[in-house]
Design goal:
The chain is of the alpha+beta class and 205 residues long. It folds into 2 domains: 9-58, no CATH class; 64-199, tt1808, chain A (Alpha-Beta Complex), CATH 3.90.1570. The protein contains 3 helices and 12 strands. The strands form 4 sheets. A 6-stranded mixed beta sheet has the order 3-5-7-8-9-10. Strands 1-2 form a two-stranded antiparallel sheet. Strands 4-6 form a two-stranded parallel ribbon. Strand 1 and strand 2 (55-58) form a beta hairpin.
Length: 205
Amino acid sequence: MYADGMTTASTLPPEEPIRGQMVLLPTPPPGGFTAGDLPRLIEAVDARFELLDGEVLMMAPATHWHDEVVDILKYALRQIAPRTVVIATEKGIDLGHTVPEPDVLVVSRAAVKSDSLVFQPADVHLAIEVVSPGTTTKDRTLRPAQYAGAGIKCFWRVENEDDAMVVYSFELLPEGSYAPTGVFHSRIKLDRPFPIDIEVPEVTW
């Protein structure tokens, strides 16, 4: 307890209810929101969100480990990426009424503008999801199905294994599903979406 007798949040008894506050969730129009509504939605929703089937889906705060891994991958890929692509983070993919937001994307440079919020699936060459405790089902099941259905050629899922980064890579098959192409612990070496040969550094802070 503090000197004034206040109890810290970590010592609240388990029966103490979790308090909350109201968050504005815009009411979808008939047919639901689309990627074209994002500029106005960003002004209205004071939190990170995605669109799922036309409705606003709030995103849980990311862990520190998650954010460190995103920074590591963005920096590493930027060092070796060809001039024809850009390494982006936390930008949406326009699937109409659904707009997922991968942690890291490799997109065609021609599609990138200073005010880009979303990209068309045809311009996305690689989508990367870094798994957090609150996104396990989404990143392992929902995201691969969405990205494969949209025709995105390459997908990586990054897992936390004892605070070490482990990269699971996948490539799109002609029939429209992903096939695993590797599991990487210390070095990522792949031919697509462009030649990649990078060391996987320790995640430290």
